[in-house]
Amino acid sequence: MRKRIAAACLAALAVLAMASCGAVNEDPGKNLIRQEEETERVVNFFSPMEKTDPDTENVARSASDLTVAMAEKRLGVSVAYRTYTAEDYQDRTYDEVALDRVRSNMDDMYLLNPDIILKLGAEGALMDLSGLACAENLREVVKTANVVDGKLVAIPQEVVAYGLFINKDMFDQYQLSLPETPEEFLECCRVFQENGIETPVGANRWWLETFVFAQAYADLYNGGNTQAEIDALNSGESKYSDYMRPGFTFLQELIDCGYIDAEKAAVSEAIEGEGADFLTQKTPIVMAYWGAANTETAYGNTDFEMQVIGFPSSRGQMPVVPMTGFAVGAGAEHAEDALLALDVMLSDEALQLYAETNRVISPSKNVEVECVPALKPLNDRIQEDVYVLGSNAGMKVEQWGNTCLIVRQLLEGATVEDCMAEFDRLQAESLQ
After folding, report:
1. What is the dihedral sign for C-alpha 245, 251, 254, 257?
2. To 10 degrees, the CA torsion angle through 111, 266, 273, 285?
3. Residue 350: which region, alpha, beta or left (left: phi > 0; alpha: psi -120 to 50)?
4. Gap between the Cα atoms of 270 and 388, Å rounded
Protein backbone atom coordinates (compact mmCIF):
# COMPACT_ATOMS: atom_id res chain seq x y z
CA MET A 1 0.00 0.00 0.00
CA ARG A 2 2.85 2.38 0.83
CA LYS A 3 4.30 1.80 -2.64
CA ARG A 4 0.93 2.46 -4.27
CA ILE A 5 0.45 5.65 -2.23
CA ALA A 6 3.96 6.81 -3.15
CA ALA A 7 3.30 6.16 -6.83
CA ALA A 8 0.00 8.01 -6.65
CA CYS A 9 1.65 10.98 -4.96
CA LEU A 10 4.38 11.13 -7.63
CA ALA A 11 1.75 11.06 -10.34
CA ALA A 12 -0.21 13.81 -8.61
CA LEU A 13 2.91 15.95 -8.31
CA ALA A 14 3.64 15.47 -12.03
CA VAL A 15 0.14 16.61 -12.94
CA LEU A 16 0.44 19.63 -10.66
CA ALA A 17 3.81 20.53 -12.20
CA MET A 18 2.38 20.40 -15.73
CA ALA A 19 -0.65 22.47 -14.68
CA SER A 20 1.56 25.14 -13.15
CA CYS A 21 3.56 25.46 -16.39
CA GLY A 22 0.41 26.11 -18.39
CA ALA A 23 -1.11 28.63 -15.98
CA VAL A 24 1.51 31.12 -14.92
CA ASN A 25 -0.94 33.52 -13.25
CA GLU A 26 -2.92 30.84 -11.31
CA ASP A 27 -3.02 31.24 -7.54
CA PRO A 28 -0.37 28.75 -6.21
CA GLY A 29 -2.54 28.10 -3.17
CA LYS A 30 -5.07 26.28 -5.33
CA ASN A 31 -2.52 23.60 -6.16
CA LEU A 32 -1.83 23.09 -2.46
CA ILE A 33 -5.55 22.75 -1.79
CA ARG A 34 -5.97 20.09 -4.50
CA GLN A 35 -3.00 18.15 -3.16
CA GLU A 36 -4.37 18.27 0.40
CA GLU A 37 -7.77 17.02 -0.76
CA GLU A 38 -6.11 13.97 -2.31
CA THR A 39 -4.21 13.12 0.90
CA GLU A 40 -5.41 9.92 2.58
CA ARG A 41 -7.37 10.31 5.83
CA VAL A 42 -5.68 8.25 8.53
CA VAL A 43 -6.68 7.44 12.10
CA ASN A 44 -3.83 6.05 14.23
CA PHE A 45 -5.05 3.34 16.62
CA PHE A 46 -2.92 1.99 19.48
CA SER A 47 -4.01 -1.33 20.94
CA PRO A 48 -2.66 -4.70 22.05
CA MET A 49 -4.26 -6.32 19.00
CA GLU A 50 -2.29 -7.09 15.84
CA LYS A 51 -3.96 -6.58 12.49
CA THR A 52 -1.82 -8.91 10.39
CA ASP A 53 -2.50 -7.60 6.89
CA PRO A 54 -4.64 -4.49 6.41
CA ASP A 55 -4.77 -5.01 2.62
CA THR A 56 -6.10 -8.55 2.63
CA GLU A 57 -9.52 -8.92 1.01
CA ASN A 58 -12.21 -11.46 1.99
CA VAL A 59 -10.25 -12.93 4.89
CA ALA A 60 -11.93 -13.50 8.26
CA ARG A 61 -10.74 -10.97 10.83
CA SER A 62 -11.39 -10.67 14.51
CA ALA A 63 -14.71 -9.20 15.56
CA SER A 64 -13.09 -5.88 16.36
CA ASP A 65 -11.36 -5.76 13.00
CA LEU A 66 -14.70 -6.24 11.26
CA THR A 67 -16.05 -3.09 12.91
CA VAL A 68 -12.87 -1.20 11.96
CA ALA A 69 -13.33 -2.31 8.37
CA MET A 70 -16.92 -1.04 8.50
CA ALA A 71 -15.71 2.40 9.59
CA GLU A 72 -12.98 2.47 6.95
CA LYS A 73 -15.44 1.66 4.16
CA ARG A 74 -18.16 4.02 5.33
CA LEU A 75 -15.94 7.03 6.04
CA GLY A 76 -13.17 6.60 3.51
CA VAL A 77 -10.55 6.63 6.24
CA SER A 78 -7.68 4.25 6.87
CA VAL A 79 -7.18 3.00 10.43
CA ALA A 80 -3.45 2.48 10.97
CA TYR A 81 -2.74 -0.05 13.70
CA ARG A 82 0.08 0.79 16.05
CA THR A 83 0.27 -2.26 18.26
CA TYR A 84 1.94 -3.02 21.55
CA THR A 85 3.10 -6.39 20.22
CA ALA A 86 4.77 -4.77 17.21
CA GLU A 87 6.96 -2.56 19.40
CA ASP A 88 9.92 -3.49 21.56
CA TYR A 89 8.34 -3.03 24.99
CA GLN A 90 9.48 -6.17 26.81
CA ASP A 91 10.33 -4.29 29.99
CA ARG A 92 7.14 -2.19 30.14
CA THR A 93 3.49 -3.17 30.46
CA TYR A 94 0.86 -2.21 27.92
CA ASP A 95 -0.68 0.16 30.47
CA GLU A 96 2.62 1.97 31.05
CA VAL A 97 3.17 2.40 27.34
CA ALA A 98 -0.44 3.51 26.72
CA LEU A 99 -0.12 6.20 29.41
CA ASP A 100 2.96 7.67 27.75
CA ARG A 101 1.47 7.54 24.26
CA VAL A 102 -1.77 9.28 25.26
CA ARG A 103 0.04 11.96 27.23
CA SER A 104 2.39 12.57 24.30
CA ASN A 105 -0.43 12.63 21.69
CA MET A 106 1.29 9.88 19.72
CA ASP A 107 -1.93 8.32 18.41
CA ASP A 108 -5.58 9.23 17.89
CA MET A 109 -7.60 6.28 19.22
CA TYR A 110 -6.75 3.87 22.02
CA LEU A 111 -8.03 0.68 23.65
CA LEU A 112 -7.51 1.18 27.39
CA ASN A 113 -7.87 -0.80 30.61
CA PRO A 114 -10.14 0.56 33.37
CA ASP A 115 -7.42 1.89 35.67
CA ILE A 116 -5.81 3.79 32.79
CA ILE A 117 -9.19 5.18 31.70
CA LEU A 118 -9.70 6.62 35.19
CA LYS A 119 -6.20 8.06 35.43
CA LEU A 120 -6.20 9.70 31.99
CA GLY A 121 -9.80 10.85 32.33
CA ALA A 122 -8.97 12.62 35.59
CA GLU A 123 -6.03 14.32 33.85
CA GLY A 124 -8.29 15.61 31.08
CA ALA A 125 -6.27 13.63 28.53
CA LEU A 126 -9.31 11.94 26.92
CA MET A 127 -12.10 13.47 24.83
CA ASP A 128 -15.73 13.46 25.95
CA LEU A 129 -17.61 10.87 23.86
CA SER A 130 -21.08 11.66 25.19
CA GLY A 131 -21.93 13.60 22.04
CA LEU A 132 -21.55 10.58 19.77
CA ALA A 133 -24.78 9.09 18.43
CA CYS A 134 -23.78 5.64 19.71
CA ALA A 135 -23.60 6.96 23.29
CA GLU A 136 -27.38 7.36 23.37
CA ASN A 137 -27.85 3.57 23.26
CA LEU A 138 -25.44 2.57 26.03
CA ARG A 139 -26.47 0.49 29.02
CA GLU A 140 -26.34 2.35 32.32
CA VAL A 141 -23.61 0.03 33.60
CA VAL A 142 -21.33 1.24 30.80
CA LYS A 143 -21.95 4.89 31.57
CA THR A 144 -21.42 4.34 35.29
CA ALA A 145 -18.08 2.67 34.71
CA ASN A 146 -16.68 5.21 32.23
CA VAL A 147 -17.84 8.69 33.27
CA VAL A 148 -15.04 10.77 34.81
CA ASP A 149 -15.82 14.28 36.09
CA GLY A 150 -19.08 14.26 34.16
CA LYS A 151 -17.47 13.19 30.86
CA LEU A 152 -17.95 9.85 29.11
CA VAL A 153 -14.30 9.18 28.30
CA ALA A 154 -14.43 5.59 27.03
CA ILE A 155 -16.85 3.10 25.45
CA PRO A 156 -16.26 -0.67 25.18
CA GLN A 157 -17.34 -3.05 22.42
CA GLU A 158 -18.49 -5.60 24.98
CA VAL A 159 -19.44 -5.83 28.63
CA VAL A 160 -16.82 -8.20 30.04
CA ALA A 161 -18.35 -10.28 32.81
CA TYR A 162 -16.32 -12.55 35.11
CA GLY A 163 -17.70 -15.65 36.79
CA LEU A 164 -16.86 -19.01 38.34
CA PHE A 165 -16.41 -21.80 35.80
CA ILE A 166 -17.81 -24.93 37.42
CA ASN A 167 -17.38 -28.61 36.57
CA LYS A 168 -21.02 -29.52 37.12
CA ASP A 169 -20.32 -33.25 36.81
CA MET A 170 -17.95 -33.15 39.78
CA PHE A 171 -20.46 -31.19 41.86
CA ASP A 172 -23.13 -33.76 41.02
CA GLN A 173 -20.77 -36.62 41.86
CA TYR A 174 -20.48 -35.37 45.44
CA GLN A 175 -24.11 -34.20 45.63
CA LEU A 176 -23.14 -30.56 46.00
CA SER A 177 -25.38 -27.64 45.11
CA LEU A 178 -23.76 -24.74 43.27
CA PRO A 179 -22.67 -22.28 45.99
CA GLU A 180 -24.48 -18.99 46.59
CA THR A 181 -22.69 -17.61 49.65
CA PRO A 182 -19.07 -17.61 50.89
CA GLU A 183 -19.99 -20.16 53.56
CA GLU A 184 -21.49 -22.53 50.97
CA PHE A 185 -18.42 -22.11 48.76
CA LEU A 186 -16.08 -23.05 51.63
CA GLU A 187 -18.20 -26.13 52.37
CA CYS A 188 -17.97 -27.27 48.75
CA CYS A 189 -14.19 -26.89 48.86
CA ARG A 190 -14.04 -28.90 52.10
CA VAL A 191 -15.99 -31.79 50.58
CA PHE A 192 -13.83 -31.84 47.46
CA GLN A 193 -10.61 -31.86 49.46
CA GLU A 194 -11.86 -34.65 51.76
CA ASN A 195 -12.52 -36.70 48.66
CA GLY A 196 -8.96 -36.41 47.36
CA ILE A 197 -9.09 -33.23 45.31
CA GLU A 198 -6.04 -31.51 46.70
CA THR A 199 -6.67 -27.99 45.37
CA PRO A 200 -10.36 -27.38 44.59
CA VAL A 201 -9.86 -23.84 43.20
CA GLY A 202 -7.53 -23.17 40.28
CA ALA A 203 -6.22 -19.60 40.51
CA ASN A 204 -3.82 -17.19 38.82
CA ARG A 205 -2.20 -13.90 39.77
CA TRP A 206 -4.73 -11.74 37.90
CA TRP A 207 -8.30 -12.67 38.74
CA LEU A 208 -8.66 -13.51 42.44
CA GLU A 209 -9.83 -9.94 43.03
CA THR A 210 -13.17 -11.03 41.54
CA PHE A 211 -13.95 -12.85 44.82
CA VAL A 212 -13.15 -9.65 46.71
CA PHE A 213 -15.33 -7.40 44.56
CA ALA A 214 -18.34 -9.72 44.80
CA GLN A 215 -18.27 -9.62 48.59
CA ALA A 216 -17.14 -6.00 48.97
CA TYR A 217 -19.72 -4.35 46.73
CA ALA A 218 -22.72 -6.68 46.54
CA ASP A 219 -24.78 -4.31 48.69
CA LEU A 220 -23.29 -1.10 47.31
CA TYR A 221 -24.40 -1.88 43.74
CA ASN A 222 -27.59 -3.75 44.55
CA GLY A 223 -28.90 -2.07 47.69
CA GLY A 224 -30.48 0.99 46.11
CA ASN A 225 -28.04 3.49 47.62
CA THR A 226 -25.12 3.25 45.19
CA GLN A 227 -24.27 6.91 44.59
CA ALA A 228 -24.54 7.91 48.24
CA GLU A 229 -22.14 5.13 49.23
CA ILE A 230 -19.67 6.10 46.50
CA ASP A 231 -19.88 9.74 47.60
CA ALA A 232 -19.06 8.68 51.16
CA LEU A 233 -16.01 6.75 49.93
CA ASN A 234 -14.82 9.66 47.81
CA SER A 235 -15.16 12.10 50.70
CA GLY A 236 -13.42 9.81 53.19
CA GLU A 237 -16.53 9.41 55.32
CA SER A 238 -16.41 5.66 54.57
CA LYS A 239 -13.31 3.50 54.17
CA TYR A 240 -12.54 1.26 51.21
CA SER A 241 -10.81 -1.09 53.64
CA ASP A 242 -14.09 -1.70 55.49
CA TYR A 243 -15.67 -2.84 52.24
CA MET A 244 -12.68 -4.95 51.20
CA ARG A 245 -11.96 -6.70 54.48
CA PRO A 246 -14.53 -9.56 54.15
CA GLY A 247 -13.23 -10.51 50.69
CA PHE A 248 -9.59 -10.54 51.79
CA THR A 249 -10.44 -12.49 54.93
CA PHE A 250 -12.25 -15.02 52.70
CA LEU A 251 -9.24 -15.35 50.38
CA GLN A 252 -6.94 -15.84 53.36
CA GLU A 253 -9.15 -18.68 54.60
CA LEU A 254 -9.04 -20.31 51.16
CA ILE A 255 -5.24 -20.10 51.30
CA ASP A 256 -4.96 -21.33 54.91
CA CYS A 257 -7.17 -24.34 54.17
CA GLY A 258 -5.19 -25.21 51.05
CA TYR A 259 -8.17 -24.69 48.77
CA ILE A 260 -6.00 -22.28 46.74
CA ASP A 261 -2.29 -22.82 46.07
CA ALA A 262 -1.08 -19.29 46.82
CA GLU A 263 2.52 -19.95 45.77
CA LYS A 264 1.46 -21.27 42.35
CA ALA A 265 -1.20 -18.61 41.87
CA ALA A 266 1.28 -15.80 42.57
CA VAL A 267 3.34 -16.70 39.49
CA SER A 268 0.68 -18.13 37.16
CA GLU A 269 -0.64 -16.29 34.13
CA ALA A 270 -4.38 -16.29 33.49
CA ILE A 271 -5.69 -19.67 32.23
CA GLU A 272 -2.16 -20.93 31.56
CA GLY A 273 -1.65 -21.74 35.23
CA GLU A 274 -4.94 -23.45 36.05
CA GLY A 275 -6.52 -24.26 32.68
CA ALA A 276 -4.99 -27.69 32.16
CA ASP A 277 -6.08 -28.97 35.57
CA PHE A 278 -9.63 -27.74 35.01
CA LEU A 279 -9.91 -29.34 31.57
CA THR A 280 -8.53 -32.66 32.84
CA GLN A 281 -10.94 -32.53 35.81
CA LYS A 282 -8.24 -32.33 38.47
CA THR A 283 -9.80 -29.17 39.85
CA PRO A 284 -13.53 -28.39 39.74
CA ILE A 285 -13.48 -24.56 39.97
CA VAL A 286 -11.68 -21.77 38.10
CA MET A 287 -12.51 -18.13 37.44
CA ALA A 288 -12.51 -16.51 34.00
CA TYR A 289 -14.24 -13.98 31.76
CA TRP A 290 -17.39 -14.50 29.68
CA GLY A 291 -15.65 -15.10 26.34
CA ALA A 292 -13.60 -18.00 27.70
CA ALA A 293 -16.76 -20.16 27.68
CA ASN A 294 -17.38 -19.75 23.96
CA THR A 295 -16.63 -22.48 21.46
CA GLU A 296 -13.00 -22.79 20.34
CA THR A 297 -11.75 -20.57 23.15
CA ALA A 298 -10.22 -21.41 26.55
CA TYR A 299 -13.02 -23.56 28.00
CA GLY A 300 -15.41 -23.83 25.07
CA ASN A 301 -15.07 -27.56 24.41
CA THR A 302 -14.99 -29.44 27.71
CA ASP A 303 -15.50 -33.18 28.19
CA PHE A 304 -17.90 -32.45 31.04
CA GLU A 305 -20.90 -30.26 31.71
CA MET A 306 -19.69 -26.79 32.54
CA GLN A 307 -21.70 -23.96 34.06
CA VAL A 308 -20.60 -20.37 34.66
CA ILE A 309 -22.05 -18.78 37.78
CA GLY A 310 -21.48 -15.61 39.80
CA PHE A 311 -19.06 -15.35 42.72
CA PRO A 312 -20.32 -16.09 46.25
CA SER A 313 -21.74 -13.07 48.08
CA SER A 314 -24.28 -12.07 50.71
CA ARG A 315 -26.74 -11.56 47.83
CA GLY A 316 -26.04 -14.88 46.13
CA GLN A 317 -24.14 -15.57 42.93
CA MET A 318 -22.66 -12.26 41.79
CA PRO A 319 -21.16 -11.46 38.36
CA VAL A 320 -18.21 -9.06 38.37
CA VAL A 321 -18.03 -6.56 35.51
CA PRO A 322 -14.90 -4.51 34.75
CA MET A 323 -14.63 -2.30 31.66
CA THR A 324 -12.00 -1.80 29.01
CA GLY A 325 -12.88 0.88 26.48
CA PHE A 326 -12.07 2.78 23.31
CA ALA A 327 -10.99 6.37 23.85
CA VAL A 328 -9.76 9.33 21.81
CA GLY A 329 -6.85 11.44 23.03
CA ALA A 330 -7.71 15.03 23.90
CA GLY A 331 -4.75 16.17 21.79
CA ALA A 332 -5.24 13.70 18.94
CA GLU A 333 -3.96 14.96 15.60
CA HIS A 334 -6.88 13.41 13.71
CA ALA A 335 -9.50 13.79 16.44
CA GLU A 336 -12.45 14.51 14.14
CA ASP A 337 -11.92 11.40 12.02
CA ALA A 338 -11.19 9.32 15.13
CA LEU A 339 -14.54 10.34 16.64
CA LEU A 340 -16.34 9.58 13.38
CA ALA A 341 -14.66 6.16 13.21
CA LEU A 342 -15.62 5.34 16.80
CA ASP A 343 -19.22 6.35 16.15
CA VAL A 344 -19.37 3.76 13.36
CA MET A 345 -17.45 1.06 15.27
CA LEU A 346 -19.76 1.45 18.28
CA SER A 347 -23.02 1.86 16.38
CA ASP A 348 -25.76 -0.71 16.95
CA GLU A 349 -25.07 -2.16 13.50
CA ALA A 350 -21.38 -2.69 14.24
CA LEU A 351 -22.00 -3.91 17.79
CA GLN A 352 -24.53 -6.45 16.50
CA LEU A 353 -21.84 -7.80 14.17
CA TYR A 354 -19.30 -7.82 17.00
CA ALA A 355 -21.65 -9.51 19.46
CA GLU A 356 -22.76 -12.17 16.96
CA THR A 357 -19.14 -12.95 16.09
CA ASN A 358 -17.91 -13.18 19.69
CA ARG A 359 -21.23 -14.04 21.37
CA VAL A 360 -20.77 -11.49 24.13
CA ILE A 361 -22.86 -9.00 26.10
CA SER A 362 -23.14 -5.78 24.12
CA PRO A 363 -22.72 -2.32 25.66
CA SER A 364 -25.80 -1.26 23.67
CA LYS A 365 -29.18 -1.87 25.25
CA ASN A 366 -30.53 -2.50 21.73
CA VAL A 367 -28.24 -5.44 20.93
CA GLU A 368 -28.94 -8.92 22.28
CA VAL A 369 -27.22 -12.18 21.33
CA GLU A 370 -28.09 -15.66 22.55
CA CYS A 371 -25.32 -17.02 24.76
CA VAL A 372 -24.05 -20.59 24.98
CA PRO A 373 -25.93 -22.76 27.52
CA ALA A 374 -23.02 -22.79 29.98
CA LEU A 375 -23.26 -19.02 30.38
CA LYS A 376 -26.99 -18.90 31.07
CA PRO A 377 -26.72 -18.74 34.91
CA LEU A 378 -24.32 -15.78 34.70
CA ASN A 379 -26.30 -14.08 31.94
CA ASP A 380 -29.57 -14.42 33.86
CA ARG A 381 -28.13 -12.43 36.76
CA ILE A 382 -26.78 -9.70 34.50
CA GLN A 383 -30.10 -9.39 32.66
CA GLU A 384 -31.72 -8.94 36.06
CA ASP A 385 -29.25 -6.05 36.66
CA VAL A 386 -27.58 -7.98 39.45
CA TYR A 387 -23.81 -7.49 39.33
CA VAL A 388 -20.95 -5.54 40.85
CA LEU A 389 -18.57 -3.31 38.95
CA GLY A 390 -14.91 -4.20 39.11
CA SER A 391 -14.09 -0.77 37.72
CA ASN A 392 -15.89 2.50 38.32
CA ALA A 393 -14.52 5.79 37.04
CA GLY A 394 -16.67 7.57 39.63
CA MET A 395 -14.55 6.21 42.49
CA LYS A 396 -11.50 8.29 43.32
CA VAL A 397 -9.47 5.19 44.20
CA GLU A 398 -9.08 3.07 41.07
CA GLN A 399 -10.44 -0.39 41.76
CA TRP A 400 -9.46 -3.12 39.30
CA GLY A 401 -5.72 -2.56 39.04
CA ASN A 402 -5.13 -1.61 42.68
CA THR A 403 -7.12 -4.51 44.08
CA CYS A 404 -5.32 -6.94 41.80
CA LEU A 405 -1.93 -5.74 43.06
CA ILE A 406 -2.98 -5.86 46.72
CA VAL A 407 -4.34 -9.40 46.29
CA ARG A 408 -0.93 -10.36 44.94
CA GLN A 409 0.60 -9.04 48.16
CA LEU A 410 -1.69 -11.40 50.06
CA LEU A 411 -0.57 -14.31 47.87
CA GLU A 412 3.05 -13.44 48.60
CA GLY A 413 2.56 -13.50 52.38
CA ALA A 414 1.16 -10.12 53.42
CA THR A 415 -1.49 -10.22 56.15
CA VAL A 416 -5.07 -9.07 55.72
CA GLU A 417 -4.24 -6.07 57.94
CA ASP A 418 -1.27 -5.19 55.72
CA CYS A 419 -3.60 -5.21 52.72
CA MET A 420 -6.18 -3.04 54.47
CA ALA A 421 -3.45 -0.55 55.39
CA GLU A 422 -2.60 -0.28 51.70
CA PHE A 423 -6.22 0.55 50.83
CA ASP A 424 -6.19 3.20 53.58
CA ARG A 425 -3.00 4.67 52.12
CA LEU A 426 -4.50 4.83 48.63
CA GLN A 427 -7.63 6.48 49.98
CA ALA A 428 -5.60 9.05 51.91
CA GLU A 429 -3.69 9.90 48.71
CA SER A 430 -6.96 10.35 46.81
CA LEU A 431 -8.19 12.85 49.42
CA GLN A 432 -5.11 15.10 49.30
Report:
1. negative
2. -100
3. alpha
4. 21
User: Is 319 in contact with 163 (CB distance < 8 Å)?
Assistant: yes
Give the model's pLDDT for residue 7.
Answer: 41
Residues whose CB falls within 8 Å of the CB of residue 351, separated by 6 or more in sequence, listed in order: 67, 134, 157, 362, 363, 364, 367
Average pLDDT over residues 164-173: 96
Greatest mean pLDDT among 114-123, 183-192, 373-382 lies in 183-192
How do residues 241-281 score in pLDDT, each as one tens digit?
999 999 999 999 999 999 999 999 998 888 888 888 999 99
pLDDT per position as a tens digit, 97-108:
999 999 999 999
Among 155, 154, 244, 156, which Cα is nearest to 208's?
Answer: 244
HEC string of the chain?
CHHHHHHHHHHHHHHHHHHHHHCCCCCHHHHHHHHHHHCCEEEEEEECCCCCCCCCCCCCCCHHHHHHHHHHHHHCEEEEEEECCCCCCCCCCHHHHHHHHHHCCCCCEEEECHHHHHHHHHHCCECCCCCCHHHHHECHHHHHHHEECCEECCECCCECCEEEEEEHHHHHHCCCCCCCCHHHHHHHHHHHHHCCCCCCEECCCCCCHHHHHHHHHHHHHHCCCHHHHHHHHHHCCCCHHHHHHHHHHHHHHHHHCCCCCHHHHCCCCCCCCCHHHHHCCCCCEEEEEHHHHCCCCCCCCCCCCEEEECECCCCCCECEECCCEEEEECCCCCHHHHHHHHHHHCCHHHHHHHHHHHCCECCECCCCCCCCHHHHHHHHHHHCCCCEECCCCCCCCCCHHHHHHHHHHHHCCCCHHHHHHHHHHHHHHHHC
Looking at 156-160, 196-200, 311-315, which range is the least confident one?
156-160
Residue 84 CA to residue 65 CA, distance in Å, equals: 16
Say how far apart CA 255 and CA 399 lie, in whole Å: 23
Of residues 184 and 56, more confidence is placed in 184
